[in-house]
Design a protein that fits this description.
The chain has 318 residues and is of the alpha/beta class. The protein starts with a strand and ends with a helix. The longest helix is centred in the last third of the chain and has 27 residues. It has a single domain, classed as Alpha-Beta Complex (Spore Coat Polysaccharide Biosynthesis Protein SpsA, Chain A), CATH 3.90.550.10. It is globular.
């Protein structure tokens, strides 16, 4: 059985969505039998200072009270139906995207949420102000199953941000750094272009997020970092990632190998890398005359990354 409900939340209550309405941000939340965390996740969306937002939940036919909770939120747009695809997470995100209308897209796991109440506002304002960038990202923070906040990932970025926009490419080559679900906001058209589609061949079945990262960076889209602890990722029993540890490990190794191959093709002159703005227009390329500088930048980031990693490991042992 398929359940449907919800409408657009515009900051002034619950209104019927008209054909021409487009909220600023859509938050896409896949859900299945995690009613325990659902309220906190939804509440963290509507606690944002930015109110031109819609929350879209695609539930996989939960039987744990999830539907009753969703009915408590008339401002949430949602459906509940069993998945039919082999890749259930990809199906859920694509269904949620199809239901959404926002100019900008944020993904959020059902047990996660948002730490900074200004996160949506900061993302929206930056994307509106800078037509070159396609994605804004911040830092994730760990949360225990009981709701206690833990460490922020890469807190050093709060003091010294990583390279921005075009300069991020060398940093990505050196570190394989990836944005996490929940801690980035991306233009709608770019998400649609780079995120895998349902029932199409994809090398990354365990994590469509990895496919998105690779496509976003190799297609030349530009990210922009904001020094904010943006979201929390909750560790809990029955996490999907725990059952996919082995295939995820293989896909991460494949992802790194593909980045190395792309990097070598570019630095050897066999491949051209174009940079694109938020409208997918080419705004420049890595010229052959700049390949030596790019190689040195990659090596410099690699050394800093290895040194920082060893320092963190040493501190954790003390």
């Amino acid at each position: 059985m398929t359940h449907k409900g919800g409408c657009l939340f515009s900051g002034n209550g619950c209104d019927e969505m008209t054909e021409n309405e487009q909220p600023g941000i859509s938050v896409l939340i896949p859900s299945f039998n995690h009613a325990k965390y659902l309220r906190e996740t939804i509440d963290s969306v509507f606690a944002q200072t930015f109110k031109d937002v819609e929350c879209v939940v695609v539930d996989g036919g939960s039987t744990d009270g999830t539907i009753d909770i969703l009915k408590e939120y008339p401002q949430v747009r949602w459906i509940s139906e069993k998945e039919t695809d082999a890749n259930k997470v990809l199906e859920a995100f694509r269904k949620a995207f199809a239901l959404s209308r926002g100019r900008y897209i944020i993904q959020c796991c059902v047990s996660d949420g948002f730490t900074s109440r200004r996160w949506f506002e900061l993302c929206h304002d930056r994307l509106e102000q800078d037509a070159e960038i396609s994605l804004v990202w911040g830092l994730p923070q760990y949360m225990t199953e009981d709701g206690d906040l833990g460490k922020v990932t890469n807190p050093e970025f709060l003091v010294k941000p990583p390279p921005q926009k075009k300069d991020f490419l060398a940093f990505w080559f050196a570190t394989f750094y990836g944005f996490h679900e929940g801690n980035y906001c991306v233009r709608r058209e770019i998400f649609d272009e780079c995120f895998p589609r349902r029932n199409e061949p994809c090398l990354f079945q365990a994590s469509p997020q990895i496919a998105f990262l690779y496509e976003f960076n190799t297609r030349g889209y530009l990210p922009y970092f904001l020094p904010v602890a943006a979201n929390f990722g909750r560790a809990h029993a029955n996490q999907r990632v725990l059952s996919l540890w082995e295939p995820l490990d293989k896909e991460i190794r494949l992802y790194k190998q593909m980045i190395k191959e792309y990097q070598e093709d570019l630095l050897s002159g066999r491949k051209r890398h174009d940079f694109r703005n938020g409208a997918a227009q080419v705004i420049g390329a890595v010229p052959r005359s700049d390949l030596g500088r790019l190689r040195r930048a990659v090596w410099g980031h690699y050394l800093k990354y290895k040194i920082a990693k060893r320092l963190i490991e040493t501190q954790e042992r003390l």
